[in-house]
């Protein structure tokens, strides 16, 4: 089985950089109240090789360092790292194999998003910011047991039905988010929790006024192609 020493200097240099990125982004999960204890994980795929970097399993966030991040191939085999990789590694690997434009994946158990997942409900698109970020509702995916690529399959199946959404709420489990890099996936995780909380609050006040899909499409197009710096 290949080790990191079998790869060239360009790959090893990117591994070093991505390890730092992934390690640091786990602190953002804490900052935005998206995880507790050792739950959740961030990964980022390399551009120079079919590898990705992911959090080790069961290690507390305050102990995470770039060197503790684990490098695995797209079949989930460890290429470099002293620790065992996250128990979600097979699902991250499945997502990367089947969604070639995705270079970042995040999983959390954030409170309000996971509450929607526990009820098996999509988060309805009742906010313009949801149209911007998700292009519609935040969808719920099927119930799948952890420990294999089954959750990854459920994520991919669901996002194929909701191609503008960077997030899926896996039923009875929690949100998975994707991005063009790990930072983009962390942003999507934070936004998922924000809209989950707000739409839960809206439900306490009355019926949610959902936005027409034609207006959602306009919002999403503006946000993706006009908003921000280019």
From TrEMBL:
Signal sequence, renumbered to the chain: none
Task: Identify its protein family.
Answer: Belongs to the aldolase class II family. AraD/FucA subfamily.
Gene Ontology cellular component annotations, sorted alphabetically: cytosol
Q: Does the keyword Zinc apply?
A: yes
NCBIfam families, A to Z: PRK06557.1
Q: Could you tell me which species this protein originates from?
A: Bifidobacterium simiarum
Report the catalytic activity: L-ribulose 5-phosphate = D-xylulose 5-phosphate
**Listed name of the protein:** L-ribulose-5-phosphate 4-epimerase
């Amino acid at each position: 089985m290949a080790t990191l020493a079998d790869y060239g200097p360009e790959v090893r240099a990117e591994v070093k950089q991505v390890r730092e990125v992934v390690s640091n982004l786990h602190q953002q999960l804490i900052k935005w109240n998206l995880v507790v204890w050792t739950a959740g994980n961030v990964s980022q795929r390399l551009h120079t090789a079919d590898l990705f970097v992911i959090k080790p399993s069961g290690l507390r966030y305050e102990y995470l360092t770039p060197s503790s991040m684990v490098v695995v191939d797209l079949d989930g085999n460890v290429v470099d790292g002293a620790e065992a990789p996250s128990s979600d590694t097979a699902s991250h690997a499945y997502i990367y194999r089947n969604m070639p434009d995705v270079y970042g994946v995040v999983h959390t158990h954030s409170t309000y998003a996971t509450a929607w997942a526990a009820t098996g409900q999509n988060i309805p698109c009742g906010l313009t910011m949801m149209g911007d970020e998700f292009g519609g509702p935040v969808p719920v995916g099927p119930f799948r047991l952890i420990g294999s690529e089954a959750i990854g399959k459920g994520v991919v199946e669901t996002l194929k039905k909701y191609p503008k959404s960077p997030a899926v709420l896996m039923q009875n489990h929690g949100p998975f988010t994707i991005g063009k890099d790990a930072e983009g996936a962390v942003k999507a995780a934070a936004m998922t929790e924000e809209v989950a909380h707000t739409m839960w609050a809206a439900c306490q006040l009355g019926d949610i006024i959902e936005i027409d899909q034609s207006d959602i499409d306009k919002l999403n197009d503006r946000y993706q192609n006009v908003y921000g710096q280019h």
